[in-house]
Amino acid sequence: MADAPLDEFRGARETGRFRFVAWDGEHPVGYIDCGTYDRWATWEGGPSGRGLTDVIEVPSAAIAFVVDPELRRRGYGIEMIHALIARRELGHVGLFGAGVEPHNVASVQCLRSAGFIPHGPAPDWEGMVYYVRAPPLNPAVRSGAWNSGN
To answer: What is the pTM of this model?
Structure first.
């Protein structure tokens, strides 16, 4: 899949793929994945899904991350997210988001500690709650106008 051509996914055009292993000295501590898109799209799937239900017209990124289970609760997840958002090749991104199952309290806390807020209060059709955040240097997005879920 990493070598597959960029395509459309759930109402947004994929513009890039970025994957990083996080290190503490010579020891890998985690992994973070970031797909970039031309916009943030909210999709409702499933048997009676309506497809595309909402769009935020700003270049966006969807992230997923994991920390070595033996090294959790030491701040690595937050540092990985901050380092990702600060990467030069992601400077065009105006909105970062991540989907989390509500019972995954550790990931929810990690995202909140990294400055993410819920995009909407209820889980989507796959049981995920999305958390979003604007990068520090994008005041138009940071103003809150994009937060249509609250």
So the answer is: 0.82
